[in-house]
Amino acid sequence: MASQGEDGRLFLEDLSVGRRFAAGPVRVSPEEVLAYAARFDPQPFHTDPATAGHPVLGGHSASGWHTASLTMRMVTEALPLAWGVVGGGGEIAWPRPVRPGDTLRVEAEVLETGRSRSRPDRGWARLRVTTLNQRDEPVQVLVTRLIVPSRVPDSGTSC
Amino acid sequence: MASQGEDGRLFLEDLSVGRRFAAGPVRVSPEEVLAYAARFDPQPFHTDPATAGHPVLGGHSASGWHTASLTMRMVTEALPLAWGVVGGGGEIAWPRPVRPGDTLRVEAEVLETGRSRSRPDRGWARLRVTTLNQRDEPVQVLVTRLIVPSRVPDSGTSC
Question: Where are the beta strands (DSSP E) in chain B?
């Protein structure tokens, strides 16, 4: 079977375009929403459960960066890349708020892959990582480029 | 003075293109690097201080999402937007690792602003938020679009 290494670790050659991964679910603990917000995003619509009527968020919501953090946790559990889940960044969007008590899950898909031009031992994979709530509504869409090792070092023909 | 509201809160009209904000510094506590990683990004190069020789990260480093979280904390302290710092997302890049014990600060600049086409009470501002380490090297560059209230509701001429 060519889709995965013998030890379950994934290499560039395993990440065919269109391959999908699922992760989660996790519940967004109301206590953790408050703790995360107190430390990293201390704005009333994240720290105060009684918040109401915010013109953008409506009521009490989790920080978008908390959603990103929970998403990363789920991705690390679902994507056993040989060098780990290591990326240089990406594009992130939060189309709707996450509420305390929501349940989130992740759907990821490989959009594109390529080899490094300078390093024969590696390449990259662009993935769309969508975080959905319990109503299957996207709460975060991340398109990220991960650095992935190659099982077969490049001979140089694609440099 | 037109650059800020009487109570210090900022509106769309205060965010002229080129306006800059500085925030921080904060020290990246080695204990928090481990605690954040254990909860949200439990990969050995974040959870194990003895990590060495990772092909991308080199040694022990903070999760990029931890850097993003610390950046958000600094931004909330430096940018008193009238509705708070609320964004729909953006582009994020981590050009180099953050090491436990680093000291980070933020430089932000307004790149572009505009009015909402559908909501006369608000507009948006695109900001570049650069997080730098103690050697003034960028460790994160975030270009984000924030939703900002208008002091003077739009009359409709730009709809």
Answer: 20-27, 87-93, 103-115, 122-132, 138-149
The Cα B33–Cα B39 span in angstroms is 10
Bridge partners for B91 per DSSP: A91, B143
The helix/strand/coil state of B51 is coil
CATH superfamily for domain A12-149: Hotdog Thioesterase (3.10.129.10)
DSSP state of A63: -
What does the domain layout of chain B look like in residue ranges?
12-149
* pLDDT tens profile A4-18: 656 789 999 999 999
Contact between B56 and A147 using a beta-carbon 8 Å cutoff: yes
pLDDT digits 0-9 by tens, A35-50: 999 999 999 999 999 9
Residues of A in contact with B39 (CB under 8 A): 69, 73
Beta-carbon separation of A72 and B90 below 8 A: no
Q: What is the rounded CA–CA span in Å between residue B49 and residue B46? A: 7
Residue in A54, A56, A84 nearest the CB of B43: A84
The nearest CA of chain A is from the CA of B63 a distance in Å of 9
Answer for the pair B24, B74: CB distance below 8 angstroms, yes or no. yes
**Residues of chain B neighbouring A91 (CB-CB closer than 8 A):** 89-92
Chain position carrying tokens 């500085």: B22
B88 contacts A55? CB cut-off 8 A? no
User: pLDDT tens track of chain B, all 159 residues?
Assistant: 345 656 789 999 999 999 999 999 999 999 999 999 999 999 999 999 999 999 999 999 999 999 999 999 999 999 999 999 999 899 999 999 999 999 999 999 999 999 999 999 999 999 999 999 999 999 999 999 999 999 987 765 554
Q: Chain B: nearest CA to A19, how far in angstroms? A: 23
A73–B69 C-beta distance less than 8 A: no
CA of A18 to nearest chain B CA: how many angstroms apart?
23
